[in-house]
Recover the amino acids of this structure.
């Protein structure tokens, strides 16, 4: 069976415009709100035209020691192209965590496929 794992691309977002850039604090207190911003093309802008655009971003949290990640949000830019409107691949969300873990983001370019990135979050009890 083929796996999606091998189809996700990544790299240094400073040199590759498709890699989701994740802005989040390095450390929070248990139960404190964590604000996460995810942007595609922060250093090198990604084309944002009718024919070439970012279709969606997803954000997950994988608490340390947990078997599965939690999907924090799924952001579909489904209005892209409606009435000449172009959506921007930029989202902000918040969540509260009690355990340290990994914030993961994935995204999809309609021409260049699947991309991912992650950052660690320390949670102090
Ligand atoms: Fe692209």
């Amino acid at each position: 069976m083929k796996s999606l794992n091998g189809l996700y691309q990544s790299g240094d977002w400073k040199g590759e415009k498709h890699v989701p850039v994740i802005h989040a604090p390095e450390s929070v207190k248990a139960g404190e709100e964590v604000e996460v911003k995810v942007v595609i093309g922060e250093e090198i802008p990604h084309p944002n035209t009718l024919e070439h655009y970012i279709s969606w971003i997803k954000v997950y949290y994988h608490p340390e020691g947990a078997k599965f990640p939690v999907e924090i949000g799924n952001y579909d830019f489904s209005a892209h192209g409606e009435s000449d409107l172009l959506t921007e691949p930029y989202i902000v969300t918040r969540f509260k965590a009690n355990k340290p873990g990994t914030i993961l983001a994935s995204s999809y370019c309609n021409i260049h496929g699947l991309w991912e990135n992650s950052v660690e979050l320390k949670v102090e009890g």
DSSP finds no helices and eight strands in the chain. The radius of gyration is 15 Å.
